[in-house]
Design a protein that fits this description.
The structure is a homodimer of 242-residue chains. The N and C termini of chain A lie far apart (37 Å). The mean pLDDT of chain A is 93. Helix content of chain A is 18%, strand content 37%. Chain A has 242 residues and is of the alpha+beta class. Chains A and B meet through helix 1 and helix 4 of A and helix 1 and helix 4 of B.
Chain lengths: 242, 242
């Protein structure tokens, strides 16, 4: 049975907005870095998988933040894998402040793809092989919610450029989050209320594509759908401040 | 007489492109984080200045990278202030790999502004007050070059959104760099040749403005000029791969 992995972090000057608190994408990036570093450390990181022509792809993710820590604040990310399904593995995260109080939780679900066929690999074998990496502790938050349909009240467009793409050559998760949050008013983005984000990745978006980001505004949040020129939903998401 | 300050860093999964090497903006962000953390540690960070209604503003910066380190590579940033002029202070940086070999150098020049008048503060007093923070070692690269005029062969536009702005409520340096580099071809952005960036910040760009990013393409680089609706140059820059 494995132990959770801990990463000690602090909020750096480049990670805060004008309220001097970490932005949601900055904390999201720290969470995903922890995932990448832990997988690497355990020998099943993207680098090891690439050698076998495979890669991890984030399928769904939920992030809950009760507070956004201030610049220079120390915090700790704990991460663990709670299970492997046939298609998705579940990686969990808690974020705790210097006093040990948990202020953030995240649940991510990952598929493994074959880089030649771009199709999902059956994880049953991986689950058996890496069974010792599983920590028998349930996810710290409700798993990512399904978002079935979005009726945009507003649409923005964005052409995918070099700085948007990741090691898999598709748009990186944080850029999707930024594209969506950038459609929300500053009052919500900089408020101190707890926030929950749910993200569903349905299809890759790639360099040079022009994306339409549809936003269905609600009073304290929104639903989003991102699609490339073919109009097929690539990402659906929701954000809600309490 | 002060010592240089060292920061031990490593290239995180969120910082690499599909060549699995750190992007130029990711290394630039690490450099600016080192500046912020060192100033904070010495008691003249943005947080301390804000209490006196002042802030540091980056005026010019040059970055030279001989190589872009690979994912997970450890490296060390050393930073020191070499002098205070009447208007600008000079902060220097070297980036060294795990073997101690320097692969990156940067020179930055900072003004202090009064947040009420948005005008520059005379640094003579600050220089005397913080004389013990100066390290008598010259800048490790040629100081930021003046870019006098740019004749764009191509222009992109960008509306300034929440994720573009920093603690000063203006567009953050890395976003300017990304906007400009995103106009360059992938072949140059991902090549392994040494690269030099020169940046001149002439005027703040703010939330909600629409920026025009003019690019004068050369064979192995480009000149850039960014302006908001008033057409007055806000940033001039050059990038050149050897």
């Amino acid at each position: 049975m494995a132990e959770k992995t801990c990463f000690d972090c602090s909020i750096e000057p480049q990670e805060v907005d004008f309220t001097f608190r970490a932005t949601i994408p900055a904390l999201g990036a720290a969470i995903l870095n922890a995932a990448g570093l832990d997988a690497h450390g355990r020998g099943f990181g993207v680098d090891a998988l690439n050698a076998a022509n495979c890669s991890w792809v984030l399928s769904r993710m939920a992030i809950e933040l009760d507070a956004r820590p201030e610049q220079y604040a120390d915090y700790r990310i704990e991460t663990w894998i709670s299970d492997y399904g046939r298609v998705l593995s579940t990686r969990n995260f808690t974020l705790a402040d210097a006093a040990g109080r948990i202020f953030g939780r995240a649940v991510s679900q990952w598929a493994m793809i074959d880089l030649r066929s771009r199709s999902a690999v059956d994880l049953s074998g991986v689950g058996r092989e890496h069974a010792e990496a599983i920590v028998a502790e349930p996810s710290p938050a409700e798993r990512p919610r399904k978002i079935r349909s979005v009726a945009p009240t507003e649409t923005a467009t964005h052409r995918v450029v070099y700085s948007d793409i990741d090691f898999n050559r598709h748009v990186n998760t944080m850029r999707y989050i930024e594209m969506m949050l950038d459609m929300m008013p500053l009052e919500l983005l900089t408020c101190e209320a707890p926030v929950r984000l749910d993200l569903h990745f349905l299809k890759e978006c790639r360099y040079g594509q022009t994306l339409a980001i549809g936003c269905e505004r609600h009073e304290r949040g929104a639903l989003f759908e991102i699609a490339a020129e073919d109009g097929i939903a690539a990402v659906r998401a929701s954000v809600e401040w309490r």
